[in-house]
């Protein structure tokens, strides 16, 4: 069955001619496949355009603009906040088929790619050169560079290398009316005009569609060493994190698991976790072949001042992969146990982590809702997982109030509502809690300049009223 109610006939005809039957999808099964992202919410688009070139993106947007058809850009659809969902119907414009690596200059340390290149494939491509692109979201095997740029994605390595916006030199991007713009360039310095690259990075596909990206590269560490450290309390672990980060050399990852996360791992896995442990850190250093052992030992010595229950000797390679298991096992377990869990990714200054954890524990106790916390302690970015049973009306009626309390707590601690997942549809009702009225108004005006008719990715980021 085919149904495209909101897209006028002439647009359908032109899109079919431009993209062919293989590149323009209207069958219900195809539309269903593009109706989801990692939120679990569903929004059925009217049709899907699978662009294979920048010229096609320009033509699609120009056509949709002229006929007032809304367009939702999409990469791999792994987003956590509904950004790739066509919540007002219209066209989904997928850049997933644009997978070419166009230019690679090791001497200038950049690579130019199309937006549909999968993060992991890019890293594989760069491997033999001794360079890498630092953004490392856990979804790297599936998510696209275009999605990473739109969401300013990040992962455990952010404590050392920063986030996506730190690794984008320039962009080609197409405005809703089909105009192609070029931002930034191939150089690591450049101060001519406003920094449009940074404005577009993290704009969640609401200002323009990224059609090409110049990515800055870093030397790939030759070796990584990892140690697992168990603590009797969250307070001690958090204090160790603050002290470590005040030191000269940052770790390459500093991940955190709280007591309830450890309880879950004890119950659901065979991982050996000390009985008394109520918090755990995964400490990784990365660099050249020499000197790393001394570096991690120095960090462990610092941590020993905080009386950990146990620390494992630093390991690398496959041994390190088994230590990472503690962290990577958590999301799948949570998904299995509580498919409707609510996963927030709040962030606070690192020194406020103890207060955040104490506050979350109080909120959990008051509401009778288990909250499991883990995440990127080195950035103060914690994944707060509310385990709720959607069949339990009493609990579900409390969820809004609990989230209000979580977000209020985070803002009172000078934090931010999202460290990496973004706003999308999921946090738009809260954005005014964080941004002041003047800043919010300016952002809306910027959106207006880029997309006066509000056709590009409508229903995202800004509150409806
Ligand atoms: C298992 C799992 C683990 C994850 N771990 C992390 C993590 O560690 N860190 C993290 O930051 N995120 C994480 N995420 C979230 C998600 O993977 C990232 O936000 C990722 O960057 C999205 O990329 P995507 O290609 O899937 O984009 P999509 O989900 O398709 O789209 C995301 C947003 O980007 C926009 N967009 C996509 N392509 C373009 C384009 N070419 N031009 C303009 N806008 C575009 C869309 O409109 C949408 O708003 C995780 C998700 C999953 C499922």
Strand-helix topology:
Blueprint (H helix, E strand, L loop, with lengths): L8 H15 E2 L2 H6 L13 E4 L3 H13 L4 E4 L16 E4 L6 E5 L4 E4 L5 H8 L4 E2 L12 H7 L6 H4 L6 E7 L5 E5 L11 H5 L8 E8 L1 E2 L3 E9 L2 H13 L6 E6 H10 L10 E9 L4 H13 L5 E2 L5 H12 L1 H8 L4 E6 L5 H15 L3 E6 L4 E6 L6 H20 L18 H4 L2 H14 L15
Parallel strand pairs: 2-4, 3-4
Antiparallel strand pairs: 1-2, 5-6, 6-10, 7-11, 8-9, 8-10, 12-14, 12-15, 13-14, 13-17, 16-18, 17-18
Helix pairs in contact: 1-3, 13-14
The structure holds flavin-adenine dinucleotide.
Low-confidence stretches: none
CATH topology descriptor of the largest domain:
Alpha-Beta Plaits
Shape: globular
Overall CATH architecture of the largest domain: 2-Layer Sandwich
Average pLDDT: 94
The CATH class of the largest domain is Alpha Beta
Fraction of residues in β-strands: 15-25%
Q: Determine the N-to-C terminus distance.
A: 36 Å
Description:
The chain has 465 residues and is α+β, with helices and mostly antiparallel strands. It has four domains: 9-94, Uridine Diphospho-n-acetylenolpyruvylglucosamine Reductase, domain 2 (2-Layer Sandwich); 101-219, 2-Layer Sandwich (Uridine Diphospho-n-acetylenolpyruvylglucosamine Reductase, domain 3); 223-328, 2-Layer Sandwich (Alpha-Beta Plaits); 338-452 and 461-465, Alpha-Beta Plaits. It is built from 16 helices and 18 strands. It has helices spanning 9-23, 28-33, 54-66, 119-126, 145-151, 158-161, 196-200, 234-246, 259-268, 292-304, 317-328, 330-337, 353-367, 393-412, 431-434, 437-450; strands at 24-25, 47-50, 71-74, 91-94, 101-105, 110-113, 131-132, 168-174, 180-184, 209-216, 218-219, 223-231, 253-258, 279-287, 310-311, 342-347, 371-376, 381-386. The chain has a seven-stranded antiparallel sheet with strand order 15-12-14-13-17-18-16, sandwiched between helices. α1 (9-23) packs antiparallel against α3 and α13 (353-367) runs antiparallel to α14. The longest helix is centred in the C-terminal third of the chain and has 20 residues, at 393-412. It is globular. The mean pLDDT is 94. The structure holds flavin-adenine dinucleotide. The site of flavin-adenine dinucleotide has 34 residues, from β3, α5 and β10.
